[in-house]
């Protein structure tokens, strides 16, 4: 067997921007027979039988390349969002689509403004592109500080990333505040609205992304099949934007980025939207129950509009997350800050509530 220790060290210079980056940390993997995996904001329900059957039938064609532009899926998504097909770009998860957006619009040294803490892939993707990440702290209640984000825009700003609901804290941005932000940001700045968890939003003033896109040609909306649609393993996400901007994202995209099984499963899921919506309702109901119980236990929580809650465990985070793992509950710790706990099935959520009661509120 070949191994690196037997050969001389490579003399190939590495990009400093890459060497200094932390690796993306996925949620802990689990022996699903034994542990409650609440570390990756997945859908706790297994695939619908109709989706599983469609994937099984499609497995007969694996020797062929998929449709490079996922034409059928793109057309179905265009119909769903009331846009032309040229406005949609699909990719290998919305994280890959975001990478292609940054490749399409950022040169070395360009600035990308985003909230922090937010989705941890943001600064990594930005720096991989040679661009400069400009993090803007969240407010104390875990929300995007939109006036501060607008104020962070400079001549070098090319992109602003807006995450609603915000991963990992949970609050959603309102439609009116988003419009205020868009009015304050120059139209030359591309505003990416990452709506990975949008299906779980039940707020009073939800963002109407169709209206936003129609009025603001500098906006890109990102959506995913990984959360509400339950297809995390197959990796499908997409962007919706003005066709001129979509062309740039498509040009930067990995060829054949959405594999055949993913295309078929996503199509079958769109056909089963009613059934999937019932599952989303069940998760939302559990989120409300968990949040209410946690508050009753004395925890101060940001208002989650997603399929997870943020527990402010501060300095105790790593110890408590390890203790939870030993007891079969996997969460996503952010050392010194808090932990993100996905909403699972009722039994898993009950286990969480037992643990948090024992830990005492904060
Ligand atoms: N955006 C946000 C805010 C997320 O939390 C995630 C998943 N953790 C993604 C994008 C990426 O999702 P995917 O690549 O599975 O579509």
From TrEMBL:
Cofactor(s) named in the record: pyridoxal 5'-phosphate
Keyword DNA damage appears in the UniProt entry: no
Top-level taxon in the UniProt lineage: Bacteria
Keyword field: Aminotransferase, Pyridoxal phosphate, Transferase
GO aspect biological process, one term: L-histidine biosynthetic process
EC number: 2.6.1.57
Record-linked PROSITE patterns: AA_TRANSFER_CLASS_2
GO molecular function terms attached to this record: aromatic-amino-acid transaminase activity; histidinol-phosphate transaminase activity; pyridoxal phosphate binding
Chain positions found as N6-(pyridoxal phosphate)lysine: 227
UniProt-listed InterPro entries: Aminotrans_II_pyridoxalP_BS, Aminotransferase_I/II_large, ArAT, HisP_aminotrans, HistidinolP_aminotransfase, PyrdxlP-dep_Trfase, PyrdxlP-dep_Trfase_major, PyrdxlP-dep_Trfase_small
Catalytic reaction annotation: an aromatic L-alpha-amino acid + 2-oxoglutarate = an aromatic oxo-acid + L-glutamate
PANTHER family the UniProt entry points to: HISTIDINOL-PHOSPHATE AMINOTRANSFERASE, HISTIDINOL-PHOSPHATE AMINOTRANSFERASE 2
Quaternary organization: Homodimer.
Annotated family: Belongs to the class-II pyridoxal-phosphate-dependent aminotransferase family.
Classification via NCBIfam families: hisC (TIGR01141), PRK03321.1 (NF002878)
The name this protein goes by in its record: Aromatic amino acid aminotransferase
Organism: Actinotalea soli
């Amino acid at each position: 067997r070949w191994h690196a220790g037997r050969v001389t060290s490579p003399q190939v210079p590495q990009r400093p921007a890459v060497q200094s980056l932390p690796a993306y940390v996925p949620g802990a993997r689990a022996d699903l027979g034994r542990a409650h995996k609440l570390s990756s904001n997945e859908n706790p329900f297994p695939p619908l039988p109709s989706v599983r059957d469609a994937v099984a039938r499609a497995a007969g064609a694996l020797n062929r390349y998929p449709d490079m532009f996922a034409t059928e899926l793109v057309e179905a998504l265009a119909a769903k969002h009331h846009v032309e097909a040229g406005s949609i770009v699909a990719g290998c998860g919305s994280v890959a689509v975001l990478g292609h957006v940054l490749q399409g619009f950022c040169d070395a040294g360009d600035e990308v403004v985003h909230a922090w803490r937010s989705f941890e892939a943001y600064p990594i993707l930005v720096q991989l592109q040679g661009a400069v990440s400009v993090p803007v702290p969240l407010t104390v209640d875990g929300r995007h500080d939109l006036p501060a984000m607008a104020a962070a825009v400079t001549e070098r700003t090319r992109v602003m990333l807006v995450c609603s609901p915000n991963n990992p804290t949970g609050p959603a941005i309102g439609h009116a505040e988003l419009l205020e932000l868009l009015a304050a940001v120059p139209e030359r700045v591309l505003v990416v609205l990452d709506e990975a968890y949008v299906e779980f939003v039940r707020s009073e003033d939800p963002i109407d992304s169709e209206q936003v896109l129609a009025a603001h040609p500098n906006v890109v909306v990102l959506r995913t099949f990984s959360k509400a649609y339950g297809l995390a393993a197959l990796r499908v996400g997409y962007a919706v934007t003005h066709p001129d901007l979509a062309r740039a994202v498509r040009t930067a995209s990995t060829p054949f980025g959405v594999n055949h099984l993913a295309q078929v499963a996503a199509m079958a899921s769109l056909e089963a939207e009613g059934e999937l919506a019932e599952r989303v309702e069940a998760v939302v109901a559990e989120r409300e129950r968990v949040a209410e119980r946690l508050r009753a236990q004395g925890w101060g929580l940001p208002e989650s509009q997603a399929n997870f809650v943020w527990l402010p465990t501060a300095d105790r985070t790593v110890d408590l997350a390890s203790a939870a793992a030993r007891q079969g509950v996997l969460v996503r710790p952010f050392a010194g800050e808090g932990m993100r706990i996905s909403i699972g099935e009722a039994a898993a959520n009950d286990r969480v509530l037992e643990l948090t009661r024992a830990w005492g509120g904060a």
